[in-house]
Amino acid sequence: MHVDTFSVPVETRAPTGQTNAVLLAGPGPDGDRETLLVDPADRVDTLDTVVRQKGLDHVAVTHTHPDHVGAVASYAAETDATVWARRFRERRFSEATGVVPDRTFLPGDRVGPARVLDTPGHAPDHVAFETPRGIVAGDLVAARGSVAVAAPEGDVRAYLTSLRRLFARDPETLFPGHGPVIESPRATCRRLLTHRREREQSVLAAVESGARELSDVVDAAYEKDLTGVRDLAAATTVAHLQKLDHEHRLQWDREAERATPRE
Question: What span, in angstroms and rounded, lies between the C-alpha atoms of 50 and 37?
Fold first, then answer.
């Protein structure tokens, strides 16, 4: 099994300003060597060169956010690769990529040399691709900092479940959607789980201390300068408020964007 990663400059909210495209090469379901390109955000010379050298059998994405799909149509047009999408998410995939998928997968299915894992949370259609060398994890993890779990796409409860699922798989390596390869997967999962618990506690404490309007909850929950990322912080706060409301730990009025403590 061989894994090549390529940092592709692309318009993204990720601090790196790049998305990692990953080319996997290894035995497919029938034992023959197959290649799978995951998250081709754009075309770059180094990626094109390796694709020409190794060939391209399959194309898929961890999820359909714009900073992960930019070159799907281009590679589909220039190669004989099979384009895959998550089943029941075909329309979302086509609208994001401009390509009608050739085939669909469900969690547990094989796509070339990888097996699909269900990892929603950052996005509702998010998956990861498991190989003997490690897991291509998209925007489930990051080596440094945190991952956006932002409403309306983000679901904190699903995200925490996905992190725990990844921890249980105990892979050798994680290949994230942005930033460097992760050589300590379980430690990274623990850190991200802790970060989410701490953010949840800060949001709950803000409401219990009197914050009601969303902007006030954001100000109280974040102890840092939010210049340039306030919209993302607000969307993340909403995702946490939705989780807390679901668990009956506070009340969140989505229409009024107003939080109140549970009596």
Answer: 11
| Structure token pair of residue 93 | 């995939």
What distances in angstroms separate CA 128 from CA 107, 213, 229, 248, one per listed residue? 9, 36, 27, 31
Mean pLDDT of 181-187: 98
Please state which CATH class domain 194-261 belongs to: mainly alpha
CA-to-CA separations, 258 to 180, 212, 224, in angstroms, rounded: 38, 5, 22
What's this model's pTM, rounded to 2 decimal places?
Answer: 0.96
Sheet holding 114-118, edge to edge: 110-111, 114-118, 127-131, 134-138, 174-176
**Structure tokens given for 209:** 């201390």
What's the fold here for domain 2-134?
A: Metallo-beta-lactamase; Chain A (3.60.15)
CA distance 214 to 188: 30
90-132 pLDDT, tens digit per residue, is 999 999 999 999 999 999 999 999 999 999 999 999 999 999 9
